[in-house]
Description:
The chain is mainly alpha-helical and 299 residues long. It has helices at 3-39, 56-63, 68-97, 104-117, 121-131, 136-143, 158-168, 171-182, 186-194, 199-227, 231-236, 248-258, 262-290. The relative contact order is 0.13.
Amino acid sequence: MSKHERLKKYQxxxxxxxxxxxxxxxxxxxxxxxxxxxxxFTNYNPLRGSKxxxxxxxIKMFTRDKDVIPSMAVTLNxxxxxxxxxxxxxxxVAMLLNHKARGINLFRTVYYLPSIxxxxxxxxxxxxxxxxSDGVINRILGLFHIExxxxxxxxxxxxxxxxxxxxxxxxxxxxxxxxxxxxIPADMYDSARVDGASPHRIFFRITLxxxxxxxxxxxxxxxxxxxxxxxxPFVITNGGPxxxxxxxxxxxxxxxxxxxxxxxxxxxxxxLFLIMAVVTTFIFKSSSVxxxxxxxEGM
Length: 299
């Protein structure tokens, strides 16, 4: 058998092995994606079928639907609150756990556990129970003679309270930060200390630059997840009070499954996709300025 024939045989077997994933991707991801793009240009109701309407859904979205811009603003506020706090918490805890001590693996496991549950309904219900007006948090504050807050009933606090659930589930980002910290050579820190560098200077001159690829990855993934957040605000506050937690994904859900306006919901989904694509592109383009790799000159 010639080298060319062996290569074709290997390629054929490679296609056979990846065919389950490839078939699943085509049926459950690519086809629905393209179908939703088509429906975004139609007036589609599952009970009445679809009718081509061109750009009317997109025009309606930005000219007649008064809830779109406020919902986008709520989503942006959620992203700006949850993502930085989550990454900062993950980095701080990772640095605290990056030490050799008795039982350190147990602490690492405990801090990772909340992330196993994800944005589940059970966690959302638990959070609502903790932060309701007569919930556990206000009762604990009452023990110290501190007046409880209306965590979920105040438009000024509701979104922050929902964001704290996401911040609390920082385990996956923490694990990546911890792995990155353990890859930084110890002799770099020793040399910096010998030269008289302060802990503050060591952190900003050594730790952060060498962690920047992981910061980049975590920022990208958490940003994408935050833009698509649905379960937490839906279960905890149902978009209230006064639409203070009515994120964009909830609007898509309402139009699709409550009003059965699938065409309009598809158009809104594609606008969300485009927003995420723009943000992702910006992060990638800016990474050349603040992301550094060990093999780069000067590192």
